Amino acid sequence: MMARVAALLMTWEVILFLIFVVVVIVNSYLSPYFLDLFNILDTTFNFMEKAIVALPMILVIICGDIDISVAGIIALSSLLMGMVSAAGAPTGIVVLVGLATGLSAGALNGLLITRFGIPAIAITIGSMSLFRGISYAVLGDQAYTKYPESFAFFGQGYIGNTIIPFELVFFIALAIVFGLLLHRTTFGRKVYAIGNNPISARFSGVRVNRIRWIVFSLSGTMSGLAAILLTSRIGSTRPNIASGWELEIITTVVLGGVAISGGKGNILGVIIGIFLIGFLKFGMGLINVPGKVMNIVIGFLLIVAIMLPGYIRALRNRSLLKRQRQKPGRTSPGLAG
Amino acid sequence: MRELLRRREFSLLILILLLMLAVSLRAPNFPQPGNLYDIANDTAILIMVAIGQMLVIITGGIDLSVASGIALTGMSVGMLNQYFPGIPIFVIILISLAIGFVLGSFNGILVSLAGIPPIITTLGTMSIYRGFVFVLSKGEWVSAHEMTEAFRELPRGSLFGVTNLLLAALLVVLIFAIFLRLSRTGREIYGVGGNKVAAQYVGISLKKINYLAFTLSGVIVGLSGLFWVSRYASAQNETAFGFELQTIAACVIGGVSIMGGTGTVLGVVLGAMFLGIVNNALTVINLSPFYQMAIQGFVILVAIVANTLVDQRNQLAMLRKREL
After folding, report:
1. Which of the residues A39, A233, B117, B203 has the least number of beta carbons within 10 Å of its own beta carbon?
2. How far is B164 from chain A (nearest CA, A)?
């Protein structure tokens, strides 16, 4: 019984949540402005777009793939949205263009990866360059800044007259959808199966390449969605929009407990990871830590977070082994875990 | 002879010659020796770092921290030169190698001893190294007038008419071509990338090889960091930002399999030259440099798909031969 409770406490989500609690406590100790409902809600604006792209990235990484091109897709979507709104398109069309661009870019990635059997990392490094490069080629050092007035709501709006940002609510809704998709549908089970062993998944009748293609298209579409929110929030399109986000998003997902080798991970862990990094950055910002130094902290956090479970498991196995030696004749069921 | 024709390096060479021919038709001054020499100089750093990157990729890993490592080494030696102008340049070269060694070793230790996947390790150290550039410099730049004459002249100075920068690149190319082809450890690197389990069974230490690959990549990064800031006569926080992806691109175009186990120094040199020629061609035919990234991305995609198709055809041919 005690062993089972201990095992439960040692799950990744619990460890992450404990780190999250420590971050909140330390932050509110360091700055009186941290535990302020308005501030906390307001800071979510800074990481909700990344969080939205992290959701499909969970599926991509569980499949055993990776998508480096997400920030490039954001740049491309934002570019085309800027173009059509410069031509006078209404909000509906702008949004549609953003989503369609994301979907097409993601589908192109998926097509190249599955059709030719090329590792996702190679294709998406190339397409990242291509997508963002198109944005540079068109815009150069210029920017689109003219958007329909109602377009501003997506990235700047609040729910009714409250102080709850629309982006936050939207993210929660999407997180629920992705949670159900991954954990409650056969599609989700197939994603895990592919990540664990694509060959045996194929032999079990899973259409591996089709699912991977869908997952990449999903990643592209959500990047297009993030582009809508981000463009709406900052009100302009420059070629360097969202630059470097791909690595930050992958860091979040991995910190959330998704194994980079595929087949393992869940939505809850990543959601905790998203808020952990977001609040950590917010707290450090309040005590005037520069952004580059925050990156050092997050880099170390990533490495320590990956090392930690392995060490805990090794320690536990060692103590179990010791106990087993002391009581010969009794087998310990926990050892296999 | 047929063996040679089927080599990937050969088709890449043909591709490069065709590209040069096409550009020459538009811009007659492109194939002048002076311009070709400039291209070689502009590409020298990419060639060096891409070779280090290749070592890591052959073992089945990836090194995303190279650009941050260049920035950190560059800022360190730049500030060293700024505050202690008396230190002779060869000592600075040694220091840059040592810094690179430490950065690479740190990656290597995390990967081989702590068992963290290379992509995660270097994703982390990429942020960490870049962050330390800021901690060191407090956001300030080291600009040309704060560097000594000897420091700025390091990449430009020449021996027998070849710049030191190009000599360094040639040296790296030669050393690693020999090391990978002829030394036992070099062959073990391929062994690990080709089949980890088999490599262990024949007594190759995975830990040693992984550590070695990252450390060697780090040492090259250190030297390149020195050359980078001395060549551009400025050390900034954003030095070499995004360069890691160019080094991976050079490898991929040069036929290094991202899954590990295959790749040659010659291929990587050609891959890097290809990127260098594309960049130079843009300026020569008066295309905005803003097109560079898009064309580079397109080239990478085409190169990977072409490589894969050639590979698949070769494999099919091999299978057919076996059937007979």
Report:
1. B203
2. 31
| C-beta atoms of A292 and B237 within 8 A | yes
pTM (2 d.p.): 0.87
One pLDDT digit (tens) per residue for chain A, 337 residues = 666 666 666 778 888 898 899 999 999 999 888 888 999 999 999 999 999 999 999 999 999 999 999 999 999 999 999 999 999 999 999 999 999 999 999 999 999 999 998 889 889 988 999 999 999 999 998 999 999 999 999 999 999 888 999 999 999 999 999 999 999 999 999 999 999 999 999 999 999 999 999 999 999 999 999 999 999 999 999 999 998 898 889 989 998 989 888 999 999 999 999 999 999 999 999 988 888 888 898 888 888 877 877 777 777 788 878 777 776 555 544 444 3
Would you state the torsion angle of the CA atoms of residues A327, A328, A331, A336, taken in this order, to the nearest 10 degrees?
Answer: 90
Nearest CB to B119 within list A133, A137, A260: A260
Residue A284 lies in a domain: yes
What residues of B are in contact with residue A133 (Cβ under 8 Å)? 291-298
User: CA A212, CA A192: separation in Å to the nearest integer?
Assistant: 11
Left, alpha or beta for A34 (phi > 0: left; psi -120 to 50: alpha)? alpha
Nearest residue, CB atoms, B125 vs list A128, A132, A299: A299
Q: What stretches of A37-119 show up as alpha helix (H) in DSSP?
A: 37-43, 48-62, 70-86, 91-116
Exposure of B105 in the CB half-sphere (CA atoms within 13 A): 6
Tokens at B317, concatenated: 């041919």
In a domain, B117, yes or no: yes
CB contact under 8 A, B128 and A296: yes
Question: Is residue A270 a contact partner of residue A60, using CB atoms and an 8 Å limit?
Answer: no
- Of A292, A294, A304, A311, which to mutate for an interface test with B (greatest number of B Cβ within 10 Å)? A292
CATH of the domain at A236: 1.10.3470
CA distance B246 to B11: 21
- Closest chain A CA to residue B244: A125
Amino acid occupying residue A20: F
A chain contacts of residue B133, beta-carbon cutoff 8 Å: 292
Domain count along chain B: 1
B291 inside domain: yes
With 0-12 / 13-18 / 19 or more C-beta atoms within 10 angstroms meaning exposed / middle / buried, residue B186 is: middle
Identity of the residue in B116, B119, B290 whose CB atom sits nearest the CB atom of A307: B116
Measure B304 CA to nearest chain A CA, in Å: 8
Which structural domain range is residue B308 located in? 11-21+31-315
What is the number of alpha carbons within 13 Å of residue A71 lying toward its C-beta? 17
Q: Which residues of A touch B131 (CB under 8 A)?
A: 292-296, 299
Nearest to A237 by CA among A88, A127, A86: A86
The Cα A300–Cα A47 span in angstroms is 20
Cβ contacts (< 8 Å) between A261 and chain B: which residues? 117
DSSP-derived letter for residue B162 is E
